[in-house]
Amino acid sequence: KNEVEQSPQNLTAQEGEFITINCSYSVGISALHWLQQHPGGGIVSLFMLSSGKKKHGRLIATINIQEKHSSLHITASHPRDSAVYICAGSGGGADGLTFGKGTHLIIQP
Amino acid sequence: NAGVTQTPKFQVLKTGQSMTLQCAQDMNHEYMSWYRQDPGMGLRLIHYSVGAGITDQGEVPNGYNVSRSTTEDFPLRLLSAAPSQTSVYFCASRRRATQYFGPGTRLTVL
């Protein structure tokens, strides 16, 4: 059974700080997704990684396949970045994603 | 494009009642799925479909039925609602590696 573990569960930081959220995953997972869920509940896909690194604006996602570990970084954090960030693994098959429990991020002004 | 739409947004049921949560997408995606989200737990896969006429069970399928008669629609049926099915339900479709989620349905079973 695929498993995904995220840390930390909760993170509060000051505006401008560099944020890192970590995700470890099990052997059967071949791609890692990062998602964002805002307080209104909507879920948005941020990145999908199977190797290397991706960047979009102030968001950077990295993955280390050997260590089965991925990180999501936010540079120059802003209160509008406050959300739940979720990592999820896919095994390359037809079935859906296996989700971590999410990291609740609060950026204070 | 409306993306992935779900109805209703909110629903309250009594134990034993049945209902259908609607999900539709206008992006011509073959793959669709249903998840439930509970406090303290990650989203969990209920059922998924890789195309019209093809469905399969996910991690937590008991108490739910699905069908996929068209590419656009993927309804989720609760056969006899139980308090354990109180949750937020998300429908999603996928193109290649990107998942598109609906806005969710908050269901309470009394």
Structure characterization notes:
The complex is a heterodimer of chains A (109) and B (110). Chain A is mainly β and 109 residues long. In chain A, a hairpin with a 7-residue loop joins strand 9 and strand 10 (98-99). Helix content of chain A is 0%, strand content 57%. Chain B has 110 residues and is mainly beta. Chain B is 0% helix and 53% strand. Chain B has no helices and eleven strands. Chain B has strands at residues 4-7, 10-13, 19-25, 31-37, 44-51, 54-57, 64-66, 76-78, 87-95, 98-101, 105-109. In chain B, the strands form two sheets. In chain B, strands 2, 4, 5, 6, 9, 10 and 11 form a seven-stranded mixed sheet that branches. Chain B has a four-stranded antiparallel sheet with strand order 1-3-8-7, with no helix packed on it. The radius of gyration of chain B is 13 Å and the shape is globular. Classes of the chains: A mainly beta (109), B mainly beta (110).
Topology summary:
The complex is a heterodimer of chains A (109) and B (110).
Chain A: E1 4-7, E2 10-14, E3 19-25, E4 31-37, E5 43-49, E6 53-56, E7 59-64, E8 69-74, E9 83-90, E10 98-99, E11 103-108
Chain B: E1 4-7, E2 10-13, E3 19-25, E4 31-37, E5 44-51, E6 54-57, E7 64-66, E8 76-78, E9 87-95, E10 98-101, E11 105-109
Parallel strand pairs in B: 2-11
Antiparallel strand pairs in B: 1-3, 3-8, 4-5, 4-9, 5-6, 7-8, 9-10, 9-11
Which descriptors would you attach to this protein?
heterodimer; A: 109 residues; mainly beta; six-stranded mixed beta sheet; five-stranded antiparallel beta sheet; 57% strand; B: 110 residues; seven-stranded mixed beta sheet; four-stranded antiparallel beta sheet; globular
